[in-house]
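re: that chain from earlier
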Amino acid sequence: MPSRRQLLQASALVSGLGALGLESSLAFAARAAAQGPVYAYVGTYSDGGKPWRGGRGQGVHQFVLDGATGALKPIAGAPAAVASTGEGAKLRNPASLARHPKLPMLYAANEFEAGSVSAFRIGANGALTFVSETPCGGKDPAYISVHPDGRFLFTANYASGDVSVLALRADGTPDASVAAVVYKDVEACGASTPCKPGADVVPQAARSHEGFATSDHDGPHAHMVHADPKGDFVLVADLGLDRVISYRFDRITGVLSQPSTVAVSESSGARHFVFHPNGKWLYLVNEEASTIAFMRYDNATGVLTLASEISALPKGFKGTSYASGIRMLPDGQHFVSLNRLHDSISIFKVDARTGAPTLVREEWSRGNYPRSCTLDPSGRFLYVCHNKQGDNVTVFRVKGGDIQFTGQYVAVGSAAAIEFSA
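^ sequence. v structure.
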């Protein structure tokens, strides 16, 4: 039987691999033995408001993970879901979640007009305790992430077209004495290369499969914000501007500066992105065009260069679909993206030499309108959240560069995003 020291050493090693999605089943077993159970949290839309939200969630739903089967089970003695504070707080749409990289803290971006971040402490039994709710300074925050250092968190504010930086205290709670700093997406390009929203028309890629996907090119709409793998830059995908913005990040002050931008096809709708484990290749989902933009990344300057755009839909598909989530698989040679209306998971192979992606096949997501997908900490299971009418999370086993449905459905009203405790 391994000693406590050996378990801790194994845990330290695989935690780094897990951050890249490269943790093996054996390594996961060692980490699980050292750290105990893994818990899962599902953010939901609890206020319908807009037809795509659903509005049947009850806040942040909480589960414990069965590491052998991937099943999600209720936490014994804990409520099914938690909200911020007060009876009406469940109407705040905690639709995006992020955990602190070092502390037992979970954060939710509350997607409503005023915009806020809720902080929860993760208890010894995995149950969440509400700590605070802090204004984020933007409207309808659709995405939240925490910098790897754990000193700042970011929100992408969809309706106001900007990103916010919030300071965290040493205990992981948002510092309410420091107002969120907001950066407008349209100011990232400057006078010589102004950021302008694309026309609200069907993009060329969607027209090629006779689709009618259009939305929100009336102005800037920040859809994702996340630090690069080294933590030196912060990247923003803006759907309305059809651009990815890269800011240099000051780890001490939290200031974003020296922005550079790269444009994708007009009206394609830049949504979410993922880095390859080498930190030099980036893959971006374009929502309206249903394409994957492959970009090369200079991690010394933060500059992105567009290399190609390919369809995320099967050859011969006709009709409308909206691409959404994206996730790199643990082997580092494949990634998956989601297609809403087509209701599928596209599996891509990455060329080891060039980084260029190739669509391999599609898998039915087993639900309606798949919004996001996340791997468990071991990288052995993929969880897909369906928020519009599906009201569930479906579970897939990851096998190398492929996935297989486990037969498991988890009932969650208007499921939007899932995050884990480890």
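The radius of gyration is 20 Å.
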